[in-house]
Amino acid sequence: MELLDRTLAKIEPVDEEFLAKAQAKLDNKTKPLGSLGRLEEMARRFAAITENLSPDTEKKVIFTFAGDHGIVEEGISAFPKEVTPQMVLNFLRGGAGVNVLARHVGAEVRVVDVGVDFDFEPDPGLIISKVAKGTRNFAKGSAMTREEALAAIEVGIALADQAKAEGIAMLGTGDMGIGNTTPSSAIIAAISGCTVREVTHRGTGINDLALEHKITVIEAGLALNRPDPQDPLDVLTKVGGLEIAGIAGLVLGAAANRIPVVVDGFISTAGALIASEMHPHVRDYIFAAHSSVEIGHRMMLDRIGAQPILDLQLRLGEGTGAALAMGLIEASVKVLTEMATFAEAGVAEA
Q1: What distances in angstroms separate CA 316 from CA 168, 224, 233, 331, one per listed residue?
Q2: CA dist., res. 314 & res. 316, Å (int)
Q3: In terms of CB atoms within 10 Å, which of 132, 180, 209, 305 comes out highest?
Q4: Is the pLDDT of residue 50 over 80?
Q5: What is the structure's pLDDT at 146?
C-alpha cells in the first residue's frame, strides 16, 4: 500500500498554461488554424504531459500483461484457459498481432506474467512478476484478496517507475487472459451502475446462448460479492483480474511520472478506469487508442472522459490498438517539432 499511496500523492493535473503554450506553437505552423484537427489536440496534450515543447517520442514500449481467470470454469469463453500461456509464448516469439503492429511503429513489446497459471522459462522479453496463478472464480467468491490486487497494481507501478528511469517516452498497455472480458464487464457494471446486459458482449466470439449465460454469470457474481462502487480497489479485488490490476498500476505510475500512456481496448480500459477512479487527474495522462467492438467500452471511455483516437472495429486486445495509436500520436508530435513556422518558410500569415 505504501508504493500505491506514494504514487497517488505524486499525481498532479496537467498544466493548462502548458497546453496553451503548445497550442500557440502549433498555431504558428504553416497551416490554417486548427486544420490538423485531433492531431493538434494529441500534440498539445503530449507536450503538456511531458512539460516539453519539443518532446522526444523515440522510445515506445507496450507492456502486455497476462493473467488467467477462475471465472472460465463457468464456460464464458470460446477458448480454453490453456490459450493464455500459449499466446504468451507466441508474443515472445514475435508472432502475435501486437508484435507485428509494434514493429511497424517502432515500439518494443514487453510481456508481463502477473498471473498466468503456468511456469514460464526465463526469456529476455518476459517479465515474471507472478502474484498468483490466476484469479479465483468470482461466481463463487472474491476473485482476489485485497493483498493480491494491491500486489498486482504495484507490479504495474514499478514498471512505470522503471520506464521513467530508462527514459521511455510513451507507454502502451496490452492484455492477455482467456475470459477477461467477463471481469471487465463486471467492473464497468459495478462502477457505473449500468445493467450487466448493457455492458456485456461476445468477447472471443461466443454465440447468443453463451452470451446469455455470460450475462447471468456476471449478474450472479456481482450479487454475491457486492463490490463497493465507491471503492475501486474493492471492485478490482472482488470481480477483477490480475492483468487488469497490473494495467491499472502502469497507468497510475505513468501519471505519477508524467509519461503519456496509450490505453488499448476493453480490458486495458478496465484497468485505466480503476486507476482513474483512484485519482481524478489520471485521465489527463491517458490516450484512448481506439473504440472497441465490446459494447461496455464506450461507457468506460465516457466515465474516464477519454475520446478514442481510432475506430477500426478491433477486439483483439494484446496492445494492438495501442500500437496503431502510438504511430498517430508520434506523427502529431512531429508536426509540433518539425513543421516549419510561417517565418521560417517565408509564407505570409492570414
Answers
A1: 25, 30, 26, 24
A2: 6
A3: 180
A4: yes
A5: 98
**What are 153's three cell numbers?**
497494481
| Element spanning 126, H or E | strand 126-128
Asked if 135 contacts 237 with a C-beta cutoff of 8 angstroms, the reply is no
Per DSSP (E only), the strands in the chain are 60-67, 108-115, 126-128, 170-176, 261-263, 286-288
pLDDT per position as a tens digit, 281-324: 999 999 999 999 999 999 999 999 999 999 999 999 999 999 99
Give yes or no: 318 in active site: yes
Of the candidates 88, 97, 65, the residue with the CA atom closest to the CA atom of residue 183: 65
Strands 286-288 and 170-176 turn out to be unpaired
Sheet arrangement for strand 60-67: 126-128, 108-115, 60-67, 170-176, 261-263, 286-288
Reported as a single tens digit per residue, the pLDDT across 189-208 is: 999 999 999 999 998 889 99
DSSP 340: P
| Calpha distance 173→161 (Å, rounded) | 15
Backbone angles phi, psi at 259, to 5 degrees: -110, 125
Dist. CA 2–CA 227, nearest whole Å: 23
Bridge partners, residue 64, by sequence = 111, 174
Q: Which of 73, 318, 330, 349 is catalytic?
A: 318
Please tell me whether residue 18 adopts helix, strand or coil conformation: helix
- Separation of CA 152 from chain center: 15
Return the HEC string of 180-211: CHHHHHHHHHHHHCCCHHHHCCCCCCCCHHHH
Domains of the chain and CATH, by start = 2-54+335-345 (1.10.1610.10), 60-329 (3.40.50.10210)
CA–CA gap between residue 277 and residue 270 (Å, rounded): 11
The whole-number pLDDT of residue 186 equals 98
For the record, the C-alpha cell of 93 comes out as 516469439
pLDDT at 315: 95
